[in-house]
Write a structure and sequence with these properties.
2 helices; mainly alpha
Length: 65
């Protein structure tokens, strides 16, 4: 599996996890659950950003070469 494929797979999994947490957040009522879910979502978003930046950087390098 190429690095690009691995990044895309990880991105897909992270987005699915983010979606599950978003659905749970809709039903969460207590502050502790909201805090935990939003912290997890922030981590997932940061991971998605890093993966997208890596994909973009690799694409830019390939265009230059």
């Amino acid at each position: 599996m190429s690095q690009r494929d691995a990044n895309l797979l990880c991105l897909r999994d992270t987005l699915e996890h983010l979606s599950v947490n978003q659905q749970r957040l809709e039903w969460a009522e207590d502050a502790e659950a909201v805090h935990l879910l939003t912290e997890n979502m922030i981590r997932d978003l940061a991971r998605c950003q890093r993966l997208c930046e890596n994909l973009r950087a690799r694409c830019s390098l390939e265009r230059v070469s």
